[in-house]
Amino acid sequence: MSANDAPRAQQPSAPYASAFLKACRREPVPHTPVWFMRQAGRSLPEYRKVREGIGMLESCMRPELVTEITLQPVRRHGVDAAIYFSDIVVPLKAIGIDLDIKPGIGPVVERPIRTRADLAQLRDLAPEDVSYVTEAIGLLTRELGATPLIGFAGAPFTLASYLVEGGPSRTYENAKAMMYGDPELWADLLDRLADITAAFLKVQIEAGASAVQLFDSWAGALAPVDYRRSVLPASAKVFEAVAGYGVPRIHFGVGTGELLGLMGEAGADVVGVDWRVPMDEAARRVGPGKALQGNLDPTVLFAPTEAVEAKTLDVLDAAKDLDGHIFNLGHGVMPSTDPDALTRLVEHVHTRTLR
Q1: Nearest CA to 23 among 95, 80, 98?
Q2: Where are the alpha helices (DSSP H) in the chain?
Q3: Residues 6+ apart with CB under 8 A from 1
Q4: Which whole-number Å values give the CA distances from 352 to 38, 49, 274, 355, in the listed order?
Q5: Closest CA to 265 of 286, 246, 244, 280
Q6: Which of 27, 79, 157, 265 has the greatest number of C-beta atoms within 10 Å?
Q7: How much is the average pLDDT of 45-71?
Q8: What is the CA radius of gyration of the chain?
Q9: Exposed (0-12), middle (13-18) or buried (19+): which is 204, by Cβ within 10 Å?
Q10: pLDDT per position as a tens digit, 277-290
C-alpha cells in the first residue's frame, strides 16, 4: 500500500477543532496551545506512585497503566494535548531485539548492530506485535474526549545510534564510523528502521492518535551535509508513509539549530525547535508553510515565577508573527521540576494569548 492509498484516520470532530490541531494546521486559534515533552513522567508524584516497582518497558506494555500515566498531566496541568506514554525503543523490543532500559543509564542493547549479518535482527513490525498500543489508545481516546492524543516514535537515526552503539553515547563513534565507513550498510540500516518506525506510527494513527511526533533526539550531533546525505532520506520515508492519513506530523530534535531547514524539508507539518534558536529566527530557517513548536528552556522552570513568566513572554513575542505556533519546552520536562510550575506556565500562556 502506498502512502497515498493509506486509509484516512476517522477524526472525531471535537479533537479536530482543538487549539492544538488548529495550530498544527496553521489555522486561527483561540489561544496558543501548550503541551510538554515528558509531561507524563518523573516530575509527577502520581506517576512515581503508579510506576513503583514496575520496569519502564513493562509499564509501556500495560494498557491501563499507559492510559493512567498519559492522562495525569492533562488532569493536573490542563495542557492542550496528551502524548502517548511509551519509549522510542518499544517497537525494537516488540520485534525481538534483546534490549532493556537500565535505570540511570537508558536503553542497553545486548547485541549491537555492527555488521550486515546483524541486520537480520530487524524484522518487520506487525500490528499484533504491539496490540497493547492499540488497546491503550482505544482506552485513551474515549477518556480524552476533545483533547487530542499525540502518538510518537523515535526517528531512524536516533534508533540506529542506540542499536549500533549498544546504548546511550555522547560521541556516537560507532554509529558515525558506520555512516562514514560503510555508507551502504548504514543506508540499509536506516531504511529498515524507517519501515519499522512507519509501521509503529500507523498502528497509533489507526487506533485513534490525532497527530504524531518523530523524535530525532540525537540528530544535533550531525553536520548539515551528513544529515542531508545520510539521515534525511530515512526520515522523509517515515513522513511520506503516514502522509495519507491526514494527521499532523511533527519533527523534533535537540541541538538542531543548523538542521531546522532540512528537518522541515524531510516532510513534517510542524518543526520542533529547542531553546537555542529564537522562534522568529527558527521560522526564517525553516521557511514558509510549516507550523513551529517550542521553545522555552526547561531549566527556566527552576527560576522564580516572575522569571519564568518573563522568559515565556520572550518566546511568545518571538513567535507572535508565526503562521502556527505550539508552545512547548525546548526539550523534555526535567525530573526535579516542580509540577506546579508547569501548571502555572500553561495558565500563563493561555491567559496571555487569549484571542
Answers
A1: 80
A2: 13-16, 19-24, 45-51, 56-60, 63-77, 90-94, 131-144, 156-165, 173-181, 183-207, 224-230, 232-241, 260-265, 279-286, 305-318, 339-352
A3: none
A4: 24, 34, 22, 9
A5: 286
A6: 157
A7: 97
A8: 19
A9: buried
A10: 999 999 999 999 99
The answer to whether 193 and 124 are in contact (CB under 8 A) is: no
Residues involved in catalysis: 38, 42, 51, 87, 162
Residue type at position 51 = R
153: enclosing H helix or E strand: strand 149-154
pLDDT reading at 11 higher than 60: no
DSSP annotation of 333: P
Contact of 43 with 337, CB cutoff 8 Å: yes
* Bridge pairing between strands 270-272 and 149-154: unpaired
**Checking DSSP bridges between strand 249-253 and strand 270-272, what pairing results, if any?**
parallel
Does residue 174 have a cis bond before it (omega within 30 degrees)? no
In one-letter notation, the amino acid at residue 294 is: G
Assigned C-alpha cell, 140 = 485513551
In the structure grid, which three cell numbers stand for residue 142, read together?
A: 474515549
- The proportion of the chain whose per-residue pLDDT surpasses 90, expressed as a percent, equals 94
Grid cell locating 28: 486561527
Q: How many residues does the chain have?
A: 355
270 and 34 Cβ atoms separated by less than 8 Å: no
Q: What is residue 14's predicted lDDT score, i.e. its pLDDT?
A: 76
Cell 543506508 -> residue: 187
158, pLDDT greater than 70: yes
Cell reading at 202: 500507523
CA 45 – CA 104 distance, rounded (Å): 18
pTM value? 0.95
Tell me the Ramachandran region of residue 19: left when phi exceeds 0, alpha when psi lies from -120 to 50, beta otherwise.
alpha
Tell me the residue type at 92. L
